[in-house]
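Support reply, case 0932

Customer input (verbatim):
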Amino acid sequence: MDRPKMIKELRELVMHASAEIITSDMSLSPFDADELTRILELINHLQANTLDNDNNDFPHSTCVIARFMHYFYIAKFFNFCGLPCARLEADKSVYKENTTFHPLTSSISLALEAMLFWAPRAHLEDLRKVWVDECINTPHWKDFNKNLMAEWTGITIYSTVMLAVDVSFLAVPNVNIIQSQSIGIIATYLSIIFITGSLIVSVLLVRQNQRHGFESAEKAADFMSNMTGTFFGVRALATVHSLPYAMLMWGMIYFAIAILYNVFKSTMVAMLASVVSGCVVVIMFILWFLWAAREFHIFGQLMRSVFPSVLAADTLP
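Our regenerated output:
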């Protein structure tokens, strides 16, 4: 194939990838929109050089075309382009999904999810959209890590504020720190421990993400293979990603216990009535949000873990 035809084919690939990105959230393009725009500008320069010269003997231009073609054809290969089982969206697998899980894995995963406020489930869904058939789409991988960085940075700010609140609470004159065996003091200490753990894990995850989060698809695939090559697979990595949020939540819960304990030590009826009414209102709003957002599917998870064969039989036609 001569160079003008190669340039035209490359232009067609870039335009198709650009249209796919505009019309789909799960594009299979190996480049994002900004990169495709810059590639199209380079193609225009290549085409101009081809028209200005008759011999077309420019090894650098050939190398540029070959490098871009390499990425597009690698993407076609991994997505089974041209075959009946071709992948049409980046988060879809071309293989039959394995819905059977080991009972030990399911039980431990359910217990961890309950302890971590079902945060691993959200991270697991995001990971499964990125790590599909042990392949990684570079634009989605970069977006995934940007979202993780934003989440962990926000959690770090919240943890810092909560740590200052816990320390300030211990300095309140009504909180007798000498009575170290009181429930309020113990709960405050536990809150400080969990908040500090959230800060440490957030910093470690941010550092890891800065090292591996914006690498090429090949290096990112090697990193994901090492991280998920355990007994629990992707679930283990999803659990690690959810630790900062979960420990921050436990820190807030223990701080709330410390506050309520010091409030309910009082015998003033007006104070008890106002605090109880406020707690009831807040708990009702939280439960209302959880029910409306369907954040916790506790009974469904329990049924799937305890009676997997029964539920599988019910779903058969």
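We compared this against your earlier run and they match. Two observations from our side: Residues 113-264 form one domain. The chain has three domains: 3-78, 113-264, 266-317. Please reopen the case if you see a mismatch on your end.
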